[in-house]
Amino acid sequence: MTPFTDSELTEVGREAARAAWEGGLTVLKDGAFVPIPLVAEPAVYPRAALEALAAEARAILSGSVKLARALLAGGDARDRAALLGPFEGLEREAMERLLSEAPCPAVLARVDFLPVEGGGPPRALELNATIPAMSGYSDLAAHAWLRAAARVRGLPPRVGEDLVAAAGSNMENLRVALCAFYEARGGTRARPSIAVVSRPADSQTGELGLLVRHLRHLGHEAEHLTPEACDPRRWDVLYRHVWAHNTPPGAPFAEALRHPARFVLANPVNGMLEAKALFARLSEAGEDRALADRAGLDEAERAAAARLPFTRRLDAALAPRLLAERERWVLKRSWDYGGKSVHLGAVLSDEAWRAAVEAALADGRGGGFVAQALVVTSRSPATRITPEGAAHAPLYRDVSTYCGLGPSAPGGSVVRAAASPVVNILGGGGVAPVLPEDVLAQLG
């Protein structure tokens, strides 16, 4: 709940959306920048809940790294196939050095959680370690909303800025994490130079531009570069926002991917960490003490693994259970992203679900499929602001929380909303501001 009437909330949303779009809340699609819709209703959490999500995310990440190391050293053939099989060329070459040479496998990562219908802590659905994006998007949404809300309340601009400062910044958390990693690697400059590297015409160019402006504002030399234009020896810190398979093997930046120990690279090539088969094995370790012991999981990591939704690698032994309990299961390809290759039994007919399960069993690409117990969530009222106007309809929301294994853990969250329970910002939804409860209370 917010201290605004429906009409005031729509006014806040419209004003915030305009400011956020001007700042870079856009996606590059078919050669044009398209505004990402803003949800006017903020996602409000007590600070303790946000801190708990950050701690849970970090435990999932650290447990995943330990488990990946154990499975590559002594897992079965299917483990190795799922962790390394989906990758080839430069991507595989670089990733084979991840656990032996990279000083930190993930300076920044993001765990996607889903709120549970009826209450209780959100449940983790997957780990993103390759491009854990949206720190800029989340700042744009929250900060634009707070400034607009203060104005609608009739408060002076300085109050809006005070609220923004109190809410915090995910981009600043990222900057601090990069600088702490640089210092831990022996760097001595107070403001190291930072290259933000992405493929040409990256879909999140607006967000990356915002990040570069933030870095420059705080005294860093910073540029948004492509792999072909980035000489890694020229920069103190390299922030990778590009898939290795989108990096030409002969590009200068490829040198950093091949030799992560020589450069302050965040992140090294680490796609295996977000393989859903690894997430499934971590879920298994929550029940299998021997597997958890082999990986060397600590108590926090074991507890986080035990709280994951039941997730397993799909095989013939599990298939009958999926077919008998269609509405309770989700199928996901182990190596995929963007909500692709996800099948929800609850929205499919018996025939369509059977076909999906049978096809998944026969499809070993990308490490095959995993089956995950459905986390039942619910839609909440939402006012979705687009350039065409405001639309009122209930939407599903997730909450994605940042973490990392460097000396400074980023923390912070972003919330996406969508018409489908497979939440994606372009799936009929958008980005919702994330606000600490005490910050919103100051507007009351």
Biggest beta sheet attributes: 6 strands, antiparallel
Give the tally of β-strands: 21
Structural class: alpha+beta
Mean pLDDT: 95
Rg result: 22 Å
Distance between the termini: 11 Å
How big a fraction of the residues is strand? 15-25%
Broad shape:
globular
Number of domains: 1
Number of helices: 16
User: Helicity, in percent?
Assistant: 25-40%
Low-pLDDT segments, ≥5 res: none
Written account of the structure:
By secondary structure, the chain is α+β, with helices and mostly antiparallel strands. The chain has one domain (6-309, 375-441). It has helices spanning 6-23, 47-74, 77-84, 89-95, 98-101, 135-152, 157-167, 170-184, 205-217, 254-258, 276-285, 289-295, 299-307, 319-324, 350-362, 437-441; strands at residues 26-29, 32-35, 38-39, 43-45, 109-114, 123-128, 194-197, 222-225, 237-240, 265-266, 311-313, 329-333, 342-344, 369-373, 383-386, 389-392, 396-397, 399-403, 413-418, 430-432, 434-436. α2 packs across α11, α2 (47-74) crosses α13 (299-307) and α11 packs across α13 (299-307). It is globular and about 65 Å long.
